Structures are given as structure tokens and as C-alpha cells.
Amino acid sequence: MPKSVLPMTDKSPEKSSEKAEKATAKTSEKKTATDQEKVIKQFELQFNINQFFNKSLIYILIGLLFLPFLISVFGGGSKDQISVTQLVKDIREKKVQKMEVAGSELRIEYKDNQGKKIARKEDGQEALTILKAAGIDLAEVDFEVQDVSTGRLIWEVVLNFLPVIAMFGLFFMLFRQARGGQDGILGIGRSKAKIFVKGKQNTKFSDVGGMTESKQELEEIVDFLKNPKKYTKMGARTPKGVLLVGPSGTGKTLLARAVAGEAGVQFLSIAGSEFMEMLVGVGASRARDLFSTAKKLAPAIIFIDEIDAIGRIRGQGSMGGHDEREQTLNQILVEMDGFTQNDNVVVMAATNRGDMLDPALVRPGRFDRRVQVSLPDLDERIHILKIHAKGKPLAESVSWEKLAKRTIGFSGADLENMLNEAAIAVARNNKTEITMHEVEEAATKVKLGPSKKRLKDEYERKMTAYHEVGHGILAHVLPFADGVHRISIISRGQALGYTLTPPENDKLQITKSEMENDIAVMLGGRAAEMMIFKEQTAGASNDIERATRMARAMVTEYGMSDLGPINLTPMYETAYSRAYGEPTKISPELQHKVDVAMQEIIAKGEKQAAEVLKKYKKQLDSISEKLLEVETLDGDEFEAMMGVPKARPKLS
Asked: Of 265, 266, 297, 267, which is closest to residue 43 (Cα–Cα)?
């Protein structure tokens, strides 16, 4: 017989202890998860019972208020009631066997089991007097009188005083609610945070496009929540707060959801405005309830979106330091600073106005980390576009790199909206796939608005065409200006036409030469109008405003003039991140020099624009005629008609 083969086992005590520790750890993890689920179910059950009890009590009190009316309506008549006259007649005919007097009621029992009936007499009138007045012999009927004075008194007290007591009870509950207490009738002091149960968050870091540096900072938070002992052994503590700061649409909320999904912990989400109510004390009560719930569900993440709604600098409210918003902020400060190392709760907050937050809120010990979420760069835009393109039938001609270069300055939300608009346009036109044309049109729509056919007059169309081509020629010829991507005389928003000149690469710095070329490009449209039509229009107002702002910044902020590196803007005294006092003002003589320097910069740009357009007048005419014909020209078509490549700066 073959021998049975047994698996090899290691009987060493070290291995056995390790296995026992692992088994104990798994058992404790399962127990912790079960306890957390019980806590959540307990919160839900308690909330439902309280809500049911409070609503039922209100309905009962309202019913008691209308009790006398209901009794008078539904208890006034009876089918077995007869008149006193009929009673006297029945007694004379010897049909009545027994009669009981109970207050104003006369209860009659008839012979031969004919039933019982009731007659009513006036209050204060005796039944014997009625029978004697009718000439009835009392020996003919069994007569009995019952004492109902006590029961009647109790019933009258109930009918008269119970509605009053119910009314006072209803007012008491309403006043209790108005105090804003945590145990109000509608739970108005309870936190309105949405609790996402552990393991229910499907968002991961892989679903977040780009933001490599931001995700790296947050990955450490995830590791803290997963392996707290790893850091406590080294004497480190869990960061108490992480503040996400960045422009709108850059994915701050998405990052917070990804942290919760990666860490696998409870996630409590609430908006900053949800703390506030018109009742005093509600915000602070909700803050206490929020942090109390999070501690019971630990490890957990509290996410406060748009925290600037309650976290603005104190002392700027309409009622000084005692308004409701500041009391809510004070409570949040206390709760965050009161955490211990074992609480294992992390507070995450998002805002696009980090400069408005109170210094006590953003200091270390409350928000230990400040993660800057910026607009995506070229590679990040490619990643984001690929994520949002899932499920959309894109043509093979769609180039991710070209789209990413086209969408410099777009946020993640802009990119998602762009692809969604392209998909809607394809469905509207009954096409089967999304081409580069639909995506390009959607990108323009996202930034400039939908197209409109507003130019009907040929003279206005021609003037607009020369205006836009004037911008384009300056942008193409000047070496430090960004090249032309698209020129169109199709109206969008408030503009009759537009010239798109996005930068080829993401820029983090700008030079004096680039700003001077940009001013010349802005004034190129006006220079073309004056050269061809010998006329000035109001269509260049936006160009003039932007050129003036840039020239002023060059002189007063950046020191790019003969006045030297001096900041000539109004300056305030600051304390605790707040500006106060009157702004400093420059002297009239220095202000005159600033005005002269600005005029010189604007005049230089205007002169440069006129000279370039005069040199390329032939291209100005030909491209304008073509634009009038097709209404839109892409960058490649424009460069081909120019006959010269885009000018580039010479690097020494």
C-alpha cells in the first residue's frame, strides 16, 4: 500500500508565535470592522427612532388641541336617544321597566328586552319634578339616581385644560429647538456630514490624472492611516490636518476621495456652509457632533469642502467677534487641537481662497500640511484626457499631445467638460465618432462660449477680419510672442471675433521682452483698422485695457522701466495676515513719472505694430480676404499664407 504523504510542518516555537500573532491581528481587524459597522447601524437606528418619536409627539399635541372640537362633532348624537316627551308617553303606556338618572342623562331600560335608550333633560332640572308635572305615579317605574359629580368634574377638567397643556408643550418643544441644542426635536444640532462606509469608496489614486507631487504628499497620509504603529515606533504622530489649496476645478475633492479609497477607512464629508444656520449655537454643536462621530469611527477622514465659508479670518464679521461663523470656527479649532495621537483621525479641507483663512486654523498642529493643487501641465493634461476619454468613440486622428498643447491653462474640470461637449455635438449631428474638429470646437466653446452669427453687415465683417488678422501677423512675426493657433470672425460671447495665441509650453515666468511683444500684439488690431480704414472703433477697448494693465504692472510692480526696481503700488500695514490703515501713496511728481513711463511703453508697442503691419500689408490683405470667405483659419493655414515661419527668439 502506498504511504500517505503529509505536508511538512515547522514545529519551531518562533514560527508558531508568528502565526499566532498574525491570526490575532486578523481577528482584531475583523472585530474592529464589525464594531465600526455596529456603531454606524446604531447611529442610523437611533436617528430613525428619535425622528419617529419626535414627529409622533408633535402630531399627538396638535390632536389634543382640537380634542374638544372633535368630541362635539363626532360625539354629539346617538341613534338610541329619545325626547323627554316620548319618555313620558312610554311610561304612561307601561313600557318602561327601569329609569336611571345620571346627571343630565335619563337612562331608560324597556320591558320585554326591547333595549335601552337615553333621554336628556336640562341642567338643574329634577327628573322627579318632570314626572310629577306629567301626572305619573312613581310606583309605575323603577326609579334610581346615580352620583356622577366626580366623573363629570374630571371630564370637564380634561376637556378644558388638556388643550392648554398641549399648547404649552408644543411651544416648549419649539423653544427647545430654537436654542440650537444637539438634542432638538429635529436634530438640528447634529452634524449633516455624509458617512461613506469603509470599503465603499471606489476612487483610487489611479483615477486622478497628474498631480504627482500632490499625490506623493497624500500617499504618506494613507500610509499613516494604514500602518500607524510604523510611525509611532519612530516617535512620529499622525498629521492632524491636510489643507488642499488650488484653483477651482483642479481636483481637490477628487484627491480627498482617492485618499479615503486608498486608505480603506471611514470617510465623513461635509461642506463648510452646512455648519451654518440662522439659529445661534447650531454651527458649534454640529462641529462637536462631527468630531465625536469621527472619533467613534476611527480610523477616519473628515473632509470639509470650501472651508473658507467658516474659516475666514476672525474679527471681520458684521458683529465683531461674537457672530455665529466665528463661534463655529472656534469650536473647530478646539476640536482639531484636542486630538490625541491615538485618535487616528485626519481632517482634510479644500479651498481656492487660502489667503482668507484664519492664521490659527492653518498653523502646524491643526493643518500640518498644505498641499498646493495647481493647474495640470502638459503630461498631466494628457493623462487626464485619457481618463475622461474612456467610453467615448474617438477617431484615430485625435492627437493627445496636440490636444494637451491646445489646452494650456485648462483645469481638469475644463478638460472633462471639453470632451463631454464634443460627445454631445457628435450625438446631436448623428455621427459615429469624435474627431479632432469636434474636440477643437468644444475647447473653444468651453473658454469663449458658444458661437453666434452676429456679424451681418459686410463693412463690419471686413473691419473685424482685418482687426483679427492684425493681431495674428504681430503674433507670428514678433519673436517673443506666442504663435497663432486659430483666427475667426465668428462671434463668441461679447467678442465679434477672436485670435487664439496659446503658449507652446507651460510658462512659470515672463520676461520684459515677452511683455513688450504682447502689448504690441494687443494693439495690432487697432493698428490694422487705422491703416486700412483710417478709423478707430470701440472693438479695441478690451485690447487697450489689457495693454494698459500690463504696462502699469511693468512700471509699478516689476520694475521694468527707467524708474528702477521700486514697488509703486498702494501698500498697507499688515498684522496677523490682515491689512489695516490707509494705503501709502506716492507723490504727485513720482505719479507723473509713472504715467510718462506707461505712455512710453504703450507708444512703443503701437509704433512697432504699425511698422510690422506696413511691412506685411500684402499678407494682411490676402489673409483678411480669405478669412472673410471661410470665417475661421487654423494655425497651419495661417502660417502657410504668411509665407514665413514663426519667428523665434535668438538664444545667445
From this structure: 297
The amino acid that residue 109 corresponds to is: E
The answer to whether residue 22 sits within a structural domain is: no
Question: Are 364 and 383 found together in one domain?
Answer: no
CA distance 172 to 159: 21
Cα distances (Å, whole numbers) of residue 278 to 283, 320, 328: 9, 17, 13
Could you tell me if 410 and 545 lie in one domain?
Answer: no
Sequence-ordered list of residues with C-beta below 8 angstroms from that of 389, at least 6 positions apart, any chain: 419
- d(CA 481, CA 458) in angstroms, rounded, equals 31
Sorted by sequence, the CB contacts under 8 Å of residue 233 that are 6+ apart come out as none
**Cβ proximity of 332 and 294 under 8 Å:** no
Asked whether the predicted pLDDT for residue 608 surpasses 90, the reply is yes
* Domain extent for 219: 194-372
- Parallel, antiparallel, or unpaired: how do β-strands 194-196 and 266-271 relate? antiparallel
> How far from the centroid of its chain's Cα atoms is residue 509's Cα?
33
Note whether 508 and 602 are same-domain residues: yes
Torsion angle of the four alpha carbons 384, 389, 390, 394, in this order, in degrees rounded to the nearest 10? -150
| Other CB atoms within 10 A of residue 65 CB | 15
Contact 434, 493 (CB under 8 A): no
- Predicted confidence (pLDDT) per residue in 568-580, tens digit: 888 766 655 555 5
Please check whether residue 185 is in contact with residue 58, taking contact to mean a CB–CB distance below 8 angstroms. Answer: yes
CA triple 217-222-226, angle to 5 deg: 150
Mean pLDDT over 586-604 rounds to 93
| Same domain for 331 and 276 | yes
**408-417: burial string, b at 16+ Cβ within 10 Å, e else:** bebbbbbbbb
Query: Alpha-carbon distance 243 to 303, whole Å?
Result: 10
Q: What CATH number does the domain containing 109 carry? A: 3.30.720.210
- How far apart are alpha carbons 251 and 257 in whole angstroms? 10
Say whether both 624 and 480 belong to one domain. yes
d(CA 457, CA 582): 52
Edge to edge, the sheet with strand 241-245 lists 194-196, 266-271, 300-305, 345-351, 241-245, 369-372
With cell 503658449, the residue in question is 503
Asked if residue 546 belongs to a domain, the reply is yes
Cα–Cα separations (whole angstroms), residue 139 to 97, 106, 502: 11, 17, 118
Write down the residue that cell numbers 356622577 correspond to. 148
Cα distance between the two ends of the chain: 91
Strand ranges in 501-624 using DSSP code E only, listed in sequence order: 573-575, 578-580
Cβ–Cβ under 8 Å, residues 537 and 496:
no
Q: Where do we find the cell 343630565?
A: 104
| CATH code, domain with 619 | 1.20.58.760
Examine residue 54 and state whether it is found in any structural domain, yes or no.
Answer: no
Which residues are catalytically annotated?
A: 468
* Cβ-contact 239, 346 below 8 angstroms: yes
Domain end call among 347, 372, 397: 372
Number of domains within the chain: 4
Report the percent of the chain where pLDDT is more than 90: 21
In a domain, 214, yes or no: yes
How is residue 571 written as a grid cell? 501698500
Query: Who's near 316: CB < 8 A, 6+ residues apart?
Result: 578
State residue 350 phi and psi, 5-degree precision: -130, 145
CA 317 to chain centre: 22
Name the domain boundary from 341, 372, 403.
Answer: 372
Q: 517 and 636: one domain?
A: yes
- 230-275 residue pLDDT tens: 888 888 777 788 899 988 888 888 888 888 788 778 888 888 777 7
